[in-house]
What does this fold into?
Amino acid sequence: MPTIRLAFTSAPRYVRTARLVGVAMARRAGVADELLDEVRQAVGEACGRAVARHQRHGVKDLIRVELDDDGPYVVRVIDACGAAPCPGS
It folds into this structure.
């Protein structure tokens, strides 16, 4: 299956969309129904943290989410801050 890529500005309202797409992809990947709430929560927390980091440091770059169901289901949330402190911190 393909990798789905989302990109959004650091507005909290887009976190909900990322959660919905994350759960839809998890279903398609065959993740058990009893784990879907955990997927929803994990995607929401990761995206929410990325939004908060961008807002806190004034980063205007987009937050990217990659969802891959080729093999094990994997979600990557990539913010412009990376592992190092954001610019201006």
Summary: The CA atoms of residues 19 and 40 lie 5 Å apart. The first strand starts at residue 3 and ends at 8.
